[in-house]
Structures are given as structure tokens and as C-alpha cells.
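Work package 3, deliverable 3.1, input record:
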Amino acid sequence: MLHTQGARPTLASVAAIAGVSRQTVSNVLNEPSRVQAETLAKVRAVLDEVNYRPHLAARQLRTKRSRVIGLRLEQVTDGINGAVLDRFLHAFTEGAQRHGYRISLFTADDDAGEIARYGELLDTTDIDAFVLTSTHHGDVRTEWLSARDIPFVTFGRPWALPHAAVSGTAPHAWVDVDGSFGTRSATEHLLSSGHRRIAFIGWPAGSGTGDERRLGWQQAMRTSGLGDDELDLLDLQTADGVNEGAAAIRSLTGHPAAPTAVVCASDSLALGALEASRSLGETFAVVGFDDTPVAAAIGLTSVAQPLIAVAEAALDLLIAQLEDRPDSTGHRLLPPRLVPRRSTATPPTTT
Amino acid sequence: MLHTQGARPTLASVAAIAGVSRQTVSNVLNEPSRVQAETLAKVRAVLDEVNYRPHLAARQLRTKRSRVIGLRLEQVTDGINGAVLDRFLHAFTEGAQRHGYRISLFTADDDAGEIARYGELLDTTDIDAFVLTSTHHGDVRTEWLSARDIPFVTFGRPWALPHAAVSGTAPHAWVDVDGSFGTRSATEHLLSSGHRRIAFIGWPAGSGTGDERRLGWQQAMRTSGLGDDELDLLDLQTADGVNEGAAAIRSLTGHPAAPTAVVCASDSLALGALEASRSLGETFAVVGFDDTPVAAAIGLTSVAQPLIAVAEAALDLLIAQLEDRPDSTGHRLLPPRLVPRRSTATPPTTT
């Protein structure tokens, strides 16, 4: 052992052991390209030997980077749909830590509150960047950050500018999951089991995420030969929630299109749909969205978002900005995956 | 309006408007007791008028407080039991924000990793305190922090010293939920519905939390007249998990004590128990623990931890330490609440 037990290695002690100047050790740590290969190898061997931990605070001061990423913790709703953002938070925090970043968490009641919080954090702390979740039409948060040149990435595409997003000229970095791909897969799964009249229980038109999820169902149904009039009949719109999903199913009794299956925009809606279906003695096949723990628990087929990949992509796009890499306003649209379970295992009882 | 639109008010501008010195404005902000009442009122009126926001960073520098609380985000397990800690995180973050504190999140694989992370954070950032979750026997994290005089509070009592904890000489601040109260309530609920032979599905002896939950069931069963031999027969021990709960129920077929109901140490175990019970065509009454979203979704009676109250108490004990108030090593043991649902709605079919 080259170092005394308990004494913390310093630049000076490393320099003494390696027989070089302190400046050389500093160069090895901070500007290795300026150091000769032989010296580099020798000093690095000593650094490893004494388990030298560069003082991060000093490094941060030098690079003017805090390595802190701000993230708003969204409010818990029914504990079902919120699980997705909690899982994203876990994945993002783990990924960020691997890259030497920490997460600073805050809460806000709405977009205005979130912006106020950005201002406060930027005023009072060192924060490198923000991650935004739940983007929506007319999202003023991204404008605010863009106008101030503050690095950020969104989980959710910029809905205000769908065409810009699709054509690759998105105004900021974003990661999203292809919702229409998810509901299209779900609908095709039901079609392949023999269902023909498949309803969609989703949110009223106007929400970016909800409209995307409706779109995938529409696409698959049109491909299967359904006309727009029939589609309209099968398109049930409601607020999100377990009770709302149950009410939608009850409204199907004596429905002119007599659907045998439903694709839902969320697991909350699907849970209500499944329970109402059972209590009516019906056997509607039901698919949810988000593959929450509740879906796994009750045997509900659901569409799973690849949250670890989302977190990794978001981190990658954020670090690209912080390091001034060219893809700093890039975006990634990731496909979700259908997880088939009991709720879609039986073919339609009426055709 | 006394101030120019867009110009940010400063000590100097406030002083100019109020007709006092900058030092007086500073005194009003930091040492109001040194300022005459009339001057205080005048300056405060100007501060309000111009919406002066004291520069928190400067204040932090002066008070040597960062107003940052570190918290380890625990790994997601089956997405069922983890929901409790996610809900605690939400409640704690919201409470902390109301008190002007932010949460710095990190992850770790185990206690040693968590301690390494404490060291790194303390070395490199300003952090005021830590919140620890999932305390257990021989928890080295609390020793490490105590030895260094670092403010912290635990969600979970100090299991290594149960007697000290109970007698009020706990070595550190903690908040916990009274698990034995919860399972006692659950067992009494079943007894009052006519069940007599009630099994317990819990974790092997040795985990503080698990032993507490077993204790409450034992207490209620003894009070109902059961002897220790019968209790031993009804005490099923297994690892946590949905499959484990199902296996425990299947082991009850032809069981000598012929139980009609089970109290479980977790919702994961209870979910497995309920599903296995249904697939066997049995009608075991089942109670879970933690009142997770899954319990609500499947109609499972469960014991709910008062997580908002836990978060408030933890924050209160933490701030007491940071402000050197006398109850800085206090503790709070909060009672949980039984949430009855369908899974315990039917009386026993055999007696």
C-alpha cells in the first residue's frame, strides 16, 4: 500500500508518490491530452492505487456545471395512471446517476406554477437543465425555457407543432412513445382473435396523447374495412377514470354496433370497463394502456411504454445539449409493446 | 406603480423608494428586531409594492443552509408494494416545498451504496439533511449519519433498538406506522364477521416490519381464545410476492386448522392469495397491507398507511433538528386504518 490508512489522498500526496509536480497531476485529471503518455500512465496508476476521488465541487466550479437536473413531480391521480410517471422517475434518476447527475424534485399545481418554480430554481440554485413531462397543446413551459436558452428535454412531443415535430424541425429535444402504434397493435390483436366491432374508450378530442391513441385504433379499424359512420358509433369519449370506463361499458347495452371488444386510452378506463363488463355478465374483451401494476394484477391486456428506453433517450438528448453536441434538439419516438393477458384471451361470443 | 416594468427590484432601489439606507433595508429583511417599528412598516410596504424577492442564494450562504434534503429513491420491485414509497415521496416533496426545502434524489443498490452516496453528496454539494426509508435490523446507515452529526429522520423505527425506541430514548428521529395495530384491526374485522380460524401469510421472522405485522394478528387471535399451538399452525411464512401468496393459499388445502380467512403482510401476498383462492373455487376472506392502487382495483380489503401524515411528521422532526428545537430526536408512531372491501364481505362458509 502506498498510502497511509485513513489519510485522504490529495493532489500533493499523489504528486509526491508519482514523483511529478502537482500541476502535472492536475493536468492528468483535467487535460490529459497535454500530458506525455508515459507520465499519464504513471500518474493514473498512482491515482488508482490511492483511490483518489477528484473533488467534484471544485470540478463543478471550474466547469460552471452543477450536474443537477430539475424535474417536477406530478400529482398523484388515481394511483393507476400516475404509476407511469413514477416508473419514469425511477428510470431517469438511475440513468442520471450513472452519468453523474442528480435530480432535484419539485412540485407545482399547473404550468404557471411550474414556470414560477423554474425561475426560483434558476435564481437561487445551480441547475443545469430540466426534464418536462406531460406535454400538451399550447404548452407555455417549453416556450419559456426556449426563450431563455435553458437546456431541457420533454417526455412527450411538442403538441403545438405536430407537423414540425414529424418533419424533424422540432423546436426542442423530446422523447415520446408512439401511442397510435400502441392502440393499432391492440386493435390488430383483437381483430386477429376474431373481433370485428371493436369500440374505443378514450378522452375527448383535443388532447395530443389521447388523439394519438384514438388514431391508432381508427387506422386499424379502417384497414379492417370499417367505414367512418361505423367508426363514429364505436368512438366513445369520456374523461379519464375507473368510473368513467365502467359508465362507457354500460352505455354499450343495446348499442347499435354491438361491439364485442374495447380498446381503452388508459388502464383506469380499462379497469372500469372490465369490472362493469363482468358485473353485467358480458364478456367484452378489454385492452388498457400503460401496463400499470394494476393491469398485471387483474390480467388486463395492456400497452406497455418502454420507460427505461425513454429515460435513457431523454438523458442522452439532455447531455447532448449540455455538451454542445449537434443533436441537441433531436427527438426520439419509441414504439410501445402490447402485453397480452386474460382480458383478451377469449374470442367474441357473438359475431 | 412605484417600480419600472421589467426592472428587478434591488436593495438599492427599495432603499431609494423608501428613503432609507441599503443597510436599513438589509436589517428589515434579516434582523427586523433592530429596526424601529415605523421604519419597518415603511420599508415592508415598499418591499410588498415592488414584489421584492430576497435573493435566496445569498440568504443560504449567510445561514449556511442549502434547504436541500437528500432522499434515496428505492428500486421498484413488483410495482405493488413500491407504490407506498412512491406515495411517501410525493407527500414528502410537497410538504418540503411548502417549507421551502427541495428534494435531491439519488439511487443506491444497498446500505453500503447509500452511505457512499451520502459521503459523495456531503463532499460535493450543500445538503442539509437526509430522509431514510425502509429501516431494518442492524441498519448501518443511521449509525453512519449519527456518528457524523448529520441531521436525518427515518420512515421506519430503529429496529436494532426496539426497547429504546419504545421507551422514548430513541437515538434518532423517526416516524413509523404501527403495523401491529393494522393487522390486529384486520384480524378483529374478520373475527367480527364470524371467522375463527384466521391464518397469517407473512415474511420469515427477523424483519422488523414483518414481525410487527405478525404480532398484531397473534394478539387478536390470542384474545379470541386461540392457543399457541393453533397459532403456530396458522402462521405461514414465505418471501414476499404474488406467486408466494398464491402458493401459501394452495398449501391450505386439507390444512389441519381449516382456516377460512387470511391476513397478509402485503398486498402482493394478498393478491396472490385472492387469485389462488378464486382459482381453487374457495372463498377465503383475504386482507392485504398497504392499500395500494391494486387493492382498490381488485376489491381487496387492506390496511392503509397514513402517508401524508407520515411525511408531515418526518418533515416536522427534520426541521426541528435543523432549527435546533428540543424535539430533534423525537419520534411518532402513527396508526394505520383498515379499508374494508369485497374480499372480506362474505362470512365464512364453513365454521
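The interface with chain A takes residues 53, 55-57, 60, 68, 73, 75-76, 78-80, 83, 86-87, 89-90, 93-94, 97, 102-107, 120-121, 123-125, 242, 271, 292-294, 296-298 of chain B (CB under 8 Å).
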